[in-house]
């Protein structure tokens, strides 16, 4: 099977909804489904978090981080207090990060695993910057922006998780068949994860859209975060802004504001980038 046939095979499977998740994700997906209900009882959320020890540990760690309100005061030492501080929306971000990274848990090839780790570093930088940009520039909901940033490369992670089956799948790709496959597969994975349509639509437009002036949407937020992320995706870098857009953006985000946002995002990056299954 040549590379084009392999991409076609993966896309056809995804279009049929034939997407396999690592078995370790199942408990996490149950929690995600429960959190979709804003009236989910706190005790039920606690029970589901405790069913996944790594998630329980990361929930407490995130609640104690400065980026998520943990600066000052006594440290949080239990899941109940951690969920109360974080809230369900931020807990969903953590759940999504665990799902995304666990796609890498079944990668055997060392080169592909290195790409998965770089993609994770890119992801958390984009997510952290998206949260800061939402609050300070675009005015969209910061928690939604953070969540969208965490899952915006889920198609890439899924493609990496399948690449062991098809040697050379992600080698040089001048015709960009891999990007097309990643986009199609990514949308299907997001559907299977029941990601809200506005978030799914913004992620689906990332390769085709330009930033509005002034930037004011979730899509604008993700585009900016990709432009400013210090770690590039190993599966293709963001397209540079055209000169006129770059000049206009300088009036909105000057060097001082950008440096301040990057410093703020770095705190969230450290909190989100703790050890998970890879």
Automatic annotation (TrEMBL):
Pfam families: HDOD (PF08668). The lineage of its organism: Bacteria, Pseudomonadati, Pseudomonadota, Betaproteobacteria, Burkholderiales. InterPro entries: HDOD (IPR013976), RNase_Y/CdgJ (IPR052340). It comes from the Bacteria. This is HDOD domain-containing protein. SUPFAM superfamilies: HD-domain/PDEase-like. PROSITE patterns: HDOD. Residues 21-209 form the HDOD domain.
């Amino acid at each position: 099977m040549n590379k084009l046939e392999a991409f076609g095979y993966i896309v056809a499977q995804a279009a049929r909804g034939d997407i396999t998740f690592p078995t370790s994700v199942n408990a996490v997906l149950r929690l995600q489904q429960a959190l979709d209900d804003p009236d989910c009882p706190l005790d039920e959320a606690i029970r589901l978090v405790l069913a996944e020890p790594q998630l329980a540990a990361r929930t407490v760690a995130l609640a104690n981080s400065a980026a998520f309100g943990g600066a000052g005061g006594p440290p949080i030492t239990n899941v109940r207090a951690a969920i109360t501080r974080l809230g369900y929306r931020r807990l969903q971000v953590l759940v999504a990060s665990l799902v995304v990274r666990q796609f890498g848990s079944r990668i055997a090839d060392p080169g592909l695993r290195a790409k998965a780790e770089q993609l994770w570093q890119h992801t958390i930088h984009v997510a952290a910057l998206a949260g800061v940009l939402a609050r300070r520039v675009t005015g969209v909901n910061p928690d939604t922006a953070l969540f969208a940033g965490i899952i915006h490369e889920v198609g890439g992670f899924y493609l990496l998780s399948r690449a062991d089956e098809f040697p050379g799948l992600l080698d040089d790709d001048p015709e960009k068949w891999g990007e097309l496959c990643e986009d199609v597969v990514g949308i299907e994975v997001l559907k299977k994860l029941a990601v809200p349509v506005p978030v799914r639509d913004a992620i689906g437009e990332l390769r085709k859209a330009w930033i509005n002036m002034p930037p004011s949407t979730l899509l604008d937020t993700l585009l900016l975060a990709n432009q400013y992320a210090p770690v590039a995706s190993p599966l293709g870098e963001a397209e540079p802004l055209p000169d006129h857009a770059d000049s206009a953006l300088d009036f909105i985000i000057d060097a001082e504001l950008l440096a301040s946002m990057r410093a703020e995002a770095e705190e969230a990056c450290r909190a989100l980038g703790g050890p998970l299954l890879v």
